[in-house]
Fold this protein.
Amino acid sequence: MHPTLRIITAALITLAPSVAPAAWQVISSEPGKRIEIDRGSITRDERGRTVALGRIILDKPIIDPKTSSAYRIVQALSSYDCAARSYSTLKRSYFKEEGQLLREDEVKVQIDMPVRSGMLDDKLLREVCRPKAGGEAATAARRTADKVNEATGELRKANEALLQNDVRRANLQTPPAAAEKPEPETRRAPPAAPTAAAAPATRPARSTQLARAEPPAAAQRAGRAQPGDRADPTAAARPARQQHWSYEGDGGPEHWGSLKPEYALCASGMRQSPIDIRDGFRVDLEPIQFRYRPSEFRVIDNGHTIQVEVGGSSISLLGKSYELVELHFHRPSEERVNGKSFEMGAHLVHRSEDGRLAVVAVLLEKGMEHPLIQTVWNNLPLEKGEYVMPPGLSIDLAQLLPADRSYYTYMGSLTTPPCSEGVLWLVLRQPQQISAEQLAIFARLYRHNARPIQPGFGRMIKESR
C-alpha cells in the first residue's frame, strides 16, 4: 500500500467510532453446552442490584416451538441481588448462530428466584457479584475504616461527657451516708471504649445509663425509668437492625409487606396465595403430564422449612414444560379446601424456560408412614443452612403423587416473600398419608410455618370433574 494511503487509512480507523464487542468469558463448560458471561455488561441499577448478560451455547441446535426454526445460543439479561442470593431474568434472546438473532422475549413478570449452591445459577452469581479488585476495592476498604474510626471517636466522646454529667449529678444528689453503699446497677461505670476494629459490633451494657441500649419508652416498659433519662447519643453510630421475615412476631406475615420495599406485594397484591379453595368451576381439565425420574438429591434446612432439591424431572401442561426445581413442606397445609385444613402440605416448585412458575401442592393427612418422606427425614442436616447429599442414594418424587391426579387450579403467588404473583397453582385433590411420628419430627423443627389464607378477590378457580 502506498505510504499516503496507509496514513489516511490509519487516520480513518482512529477517527471512526468504536463499538466495544461483548467480552464473553467462559465460566462453565459441560457436555453439550458452554456457559459464558459478558463481564463488560456488569452494571448496577437504581435499586442497587447487579445487572449482567450471560448466555448458553449449545453444541447442537434445538427447534424453537414459537418460530419452528432452530437456535443454538440463548442469551439472558438478568438482575442479581448479591446479598439475598437471588436473581430475576429481564430479557431473553435466541440466536441461530453467533450474531444471527432469531427472536427476543421481554420478561413481563419478573420473579426473584433463589440461587442454589453448586448449580449453574450459583456459578453466574459468583462471577457477577465478585468484588472488584485493585485500587477501587482498597479505596472502599479505607473509607469503611475511616467511618468506623469516626464512629468510635464519637462514641468515646459521648460516653465521657455523660460520665462527667452523671458524676456531677451523683455528687449533688447522693447523701453522705450512701457513699459506702454498693453502687446501683444503673450507676456502674461504662465499659472501656471499643477499639476501631470492634466498634460496629460492640454495644454498651444494657443496664448502664451512660449509653442506654433502649430508648426511654422501652426503659419505662421494663420498669427502669428514672429521672434524667435521655435519648441514646450513640444511636446514629449503630447500623439499624434489619428484621428478617418469619412466621410469627415482628417478622410475621402481617408485617412482610413493610420489611423491605421488594416485599410490598405481600401486602398490596390482589392475587396472593394461599387461598381457601371453594366454589370452583367443575370442568374437563387437561391432565398434568408428570415426567418425574429417580435422581440424586440433597436436603437443606433453610431456616423456614425443609427443602429437597432434585434434577431431571418436569411436568407439562397446556403445551408448556416446567422443570422441577425443589420440594418443601409446610405445617399445617397452607391450602384449605372448602374451609378444611390438612396436617401438612408439600409444594413441588417448577420453573419454565421463560421463568414462569408452576407449583404442584400435595395435601398430607395423618395415616400410614410415607416412604419418600422418611427418606428425606433420614437425611436431615444437623445444622441449618447445611446440605446433606447422600452418596449413591436416589429419590423418586413420583412416589409423593397420589393415584388420582385430578386437581384444582388458580393463579396466585409465592407464599413467602417477595410474594411474587403470576404463579400457576395446581393443588392435587387426593391427599397422601404421613405417619404421626413423621409429623412429630417436622413439628419439632417447625411448629408452624404456613402463611395465613389470603383474599380471593373473585379469582377463577377450576377443578377436575
